[in-house]
Amino acid sequence: MSRLPDHRYGRLAETMAAWAMRLRGYRIVGRNVRVAGREVDLLARKRDLLVICEVKARRVERYGGPLEAVGPRQQRRLHEAAEVLMARDDSIRQVRFDVIAVSGYAVRHLPAAF
Question: How far is the CA of 108 from the CAs of 38, 71, 81, 88, 92, in angstroms?
Answer without folding.
Answer: 24, 18, 23, 30, 25
